[in-house]
């Protein structure tokens, strides 16, 4: 994907997430967060992460996509922003997240910390949580 098209799709995808996020924001704010994990995005340098990194902000919501048929990891969970795949939840901590997602629970993720100087490993730290 060309950079201009990538940035356009990223912006449009994020705008859609912001619009739909407002519908649930009041109801979900009342429920306490149950933290599942805090870790860096795995494989960030192999996907759209380097191109999207300058558009990420602390506190930004990310989309999680369960990938049960991943040939390398049956508990794989992708991390996306708009149309940009950032990478995966690390294999060492993804089983609890995958288990909850498989049970139909709403699992959420946000950008917790950005450290561009730590590229490629450790540049984006995410928090993953669910609400009861």
Report how far apart the termini are.
39 Å
Strand content: 25-35%
- How many strand elements? 6
SSE string = HEHEEEHEE
Provide the residue-averaged pLDDT. Answer: 83
Q: Helical proportion?
A: 25-40%
User: Regions with pLDDT < 50 over 5+ consecutive residues?
Assistant: 14-24
Largest sheet: 6 strands, antiparallel
C-alpha-based Rg, rounded: 14 Å
The oligomerization state is single chain
Structural class: alpha+beta
Describe the structure.
The chain is an alpha+beta fold. The chain is 30% helix and 30% strand. It contains three helices and six strands. The protein has helices spanning 3-29, 49-52, 94-102, and strands at residues 33-40, 61-66, 77-81, 84-88, 107-114, 124-131. Strands 1-6-5-2-3-4 form a six-stranded antiparallel β-sheet. A hairpin with a 2-residue loop joins strand 3 and strand 4 (84-88). Mean pLDDT is 83; it is low at 14-24.
Q: What brief labels describe this structure?
A:
six-stranded antiparallel β-sheet, alpha+beta, 6 strands, single chain, 132 residues
Task: Describe this structure in a few short sentences.
The chain is α+β, with helices and mostly antiparallel strands and 132 residues long. Helix content is 30%, strand content 30%.
């Amino acid at each position: 994907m060309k950079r201009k098209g990538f940035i356009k799709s990223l912006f449009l995808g994020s705008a859609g997430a912001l619009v739909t996020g407002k519908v649930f924001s009041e109801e979900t704010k009342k429920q306490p967060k149950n933290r599942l994990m805090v870790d860096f995005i795995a494989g960030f340098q192999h996907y759209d992460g380097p191109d999207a990194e300058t558009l990420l902000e602390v506190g930004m919501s990310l989309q999680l996509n369960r990938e049960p048929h991943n040939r390398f990891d049956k508990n794989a969970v992708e991390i996306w922003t708009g149309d940009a795949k950032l990478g995966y939840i690390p294999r060492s901590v993804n089983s609890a997240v995958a288990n909850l997602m498989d049970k139909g629970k709403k699992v959420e993720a946000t950008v917790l910390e950005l450290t561009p100087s730590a590229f490629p490993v450790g540049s984006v730290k995410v928090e993953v949580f669910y609400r009861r």
